[in-house]
Sequence to fold (576 residues):
Amino acid sequence: MYIHKTQSGCVGNMEYTFSPLGDQAVMIAVEAAISNLSQRKVNAIVARLDEVAPSWMVEYIPAYTTVTVIYELGEFIGKHPPFEQVCLRIQEILIGVQDVADTEQRIVSIPVLYGGSYGPDLDFVAEYNGLTPCEVIEIHTSGDYTVHMIGFAPGFPFIGGMSEKISAPRKETPRLKIPARSVGIAGMQTGVYPIETPGGWQLMGRTPLELFLPNEHPPSLLAPGDKIRFYEITIEEYKDLRGDDE
Amino acid sequence: MITVIKQGLHDTVQDLGRYGYQRFGVVAGGAMDPFSHRVTNMLVGNEEAVATLELTLVGPHLLFEEDALITIGGGDLTPMVADEPVPMWKPVLIRKGSELRFGAARAGCRAYLAVAGGFDIPEVLGSRSTYVKAGLGGLDGRALRKEDILRFNSSSRLAEVMKGKLVSGLPLRAADWQITPKLLPNLSGHYEILVMRGMQYELFDEESRHHFWNESFTVSSQSDRMGYRINGPTLRLRESIEMVSEAVTYGSIQVPADGNPIILAADRQTTGGYPKVGQISSVDFAKLAQAKAGDQLSFKEVTIEESQRLFIKQEMDLRVLRAAIRNRLR
Fold:
């Protein structure tokens, strides 16, 4: 690892390293690269942290190959340096954690109105890949996708599993405003923008579903590990589902 | 109750942040200068997490429709009532009908206005902090505007005792004591900031690492609550890497491919994919929050052990301060 100061642990068949992310967080790294195994390990650690929910843990942020635990530094006033104490406590918590295969996966179906003013880059993505827009939609809707992590913006899913037949580079000049609920492609990734933000993804269409739900618990439609299917809808269906004039 | 007569550049309601939802991509937010936020709350007898107003560079004009015990701390945005400057870092009784006017920044960048009892604003996802980009929290998820009305919650017993002591016919009456200046940051425009090595520090080439610790950087005008862009020597990796997105936090110093660092601040996104050269010590968030465009930053290396020791020392100082304020307010 490239980290200047790490502590490592090994429990059962799971190895990981600890590195400080500032003075109030510790990053647990399970693998160097993204894989199904890294995802399972991250999920297993998260499940254990949820189960134990130590009082000194403020929250955690799971990512592709890491879980970062934010802690209450004030709770570690004592003889040992607080960072070391935190690592030891986490090691104890993770004893016996196995990277078992996920037992239950949710499947979330996401309706998308493709093309037109809702997906202004559909034609570009088609042309770039030597396909017709219909073929692009066909490939995009037949993919088997997994949510790897939520980050970047409230409720924004990082989704893996897109066919390389419809991959497309980011726009050279990012748009200043991408409408909320836009479905896009960037490189080998596909995703949905929950809120209006600037961004460089190629826009394929828009979903009537809200991904960020500030008044609900949890406030995100999607969670890491979810399976996703996209399906095509018409403008009439889109308007029915929105129930407003957008 | 306060009525906004004239809005400032960017006045938002903030508390200590929205924690527990970063795993869903919800930014933590909260006061940019948590030290000033906490101390101003203490000085009006509030719990430290109570929402304050964060005022940036040019502050608002606020009409007080009732008597209120307030404290202003952080950057000096030249607060005045009538023609009288309002002293900072001490409890002040503002009488009903008075207008509190902030001007331009004389020192620092962000002032905090705490009111005894705090602002009567609903919590969203466990916090009153305003996150403008998602329209979350605060007053309708946005910065204050002319004609907005902010109501107060009822103040603590301590605050009521203090109010009783300060009553007079004047539009403004300040306590005859203040907190020791040695606890307060020096708002000079050149800030030496304590930094730990970042998660990818070793990946930067030797020259870049040398520059990072030995040169100073200028705060760019493209700096806001999300992050500070800083200009100085460009920082290069020994070889380019394809990084996997991972968590970032307040004070993470990211370096995109162009070599110009970005310091992530309160409204940072939850994850990032750029290498991190450094990580600012929590005790120095206050300095960063008070730096404005054109100010100089230089970075001094600390270990995590030292950074955590300094944090704990500051917590102890704040405990002592809290006890001293309680004695004074009594």
Q: What stands out?
A: The helical segments of chain A are 36-52, 82-93, 122-128, 133-141, 235-242. The radius of gyration of chain A is 21 Å.
